[in-house]
Please model this.
Amino acid sequence: MQIPFAKPHFTGQEGALVAEVIASGWVSQGPKVREFEQAFAARVGAAEAVATTSCTTALQLALYVIGVGPGDEVIVPSLSFIATANSVWHCGATPVFADIDPDTYNLDPDAAERAITERTKAIMPVHQVGLPADMDRLLDLGERYAINVVEDAACAVGATYKGRPIGSLGPLACFSLHPRKVITTGEGGMITLNDPQVAGRLRKLRAHAMDVSDLARHSAKDVVIESYPERGWNSRMTDMQAQLGLCQLEELDWILERRRALAERYTRALTHIPSLVAPFEPDYALRTWQSYCVRVNGRSPIGRTELMRRLLRDGIPTRRGVMTIHQEPAYADVSVSLPHSEAAADDVIMLPLFPDMTEQQQDYVLERLVSHAVAVAA
Ligand SMILES: Cc1ncc(COP(=O)(O)O)c(C=O)c1O
Model:
């Protein structure tokens, strides 16, 4: 059997609806992006949402809008996709890596506090693989030290923290709409916030800071001579993507439910495989299960990478757990020791999980896991 590692969920209706957008003649950022922003904001309990080309550009714009620039430091977990740190670098600032809580794999608020210096401009917690970080403590840290908090919520569309949706908690949260995430627009990102003035500035910054949007100019009754009060970027989403995003939002609850059911099924089965440790289940959060991360412990007859290799031979692709950015050549100039992050990067694998996965497919994964991680030991 050949199992996909991940696969976005589509109903089959999307193509016709995107074709309507194409037929309208408006394919770049326009009315559909606005509609998608409003629907997204409503879904995550934010007053405003600003669409972008990716979570990476969303993070970079969010950092820029709060004034992060050269000479500033931003505290980030190293255990994250490299985009987290790159977005800081895109602003000319320095990412400062802090360690994680080994249970949740999320930024440890105590470690973040220890990393604060007089140059710290922001803390960027990551809701890793869709599990909300300890936001009460991180927002409190931000308040006590007068530091901004920008959430990397790439994998957290639909997650809740103490009953409140991610996107409604902090001043700025950035989501990814890449196909490996919970919902997708092919590529895409979203910034959610409550301040309409900041949202207005972000909408300009994503379009070269032009003082009038394409939409407003096209519907103007008089000649519009645009102006550029500051410098900006092209981080515009297209209306075709936004239409796909609107379709995906309709499916979000079902997607979350399927992911949860499959994750719970994995967790139940893993109780019979002592060499594999199921993910920690906090009582304060509802996660998205964007990925299902398993820890390979010392009782496994084979190491993490060998287990991945054997599963791949069985037609089961897996992925290493979340990377550690400070251990990549791209950040070789950083010298820091982060024991919890490094151990998690060494020991964790991600198992296949996607909304349309069948129980038969999942049983096959579990059967092969038992064969390699239990029976081989005997
Ligand atoms: C934690 C995290 N942040 C940022 C990103 C970047 O998202 P995008 O591909 O939309 O730029 C990812 C994508 O994998 C991610 O996992």
User: Anything to note?
Assistant: The pocket of pyridoxal-5'-phosphate is lined by residues 54-56, 80-81, 83-84, 126, 152, 154-155, 176, 178, 189 (CB under 6 Å). The mean pLDDT is 96. The first strand starts at residue 48 and ends at 52.
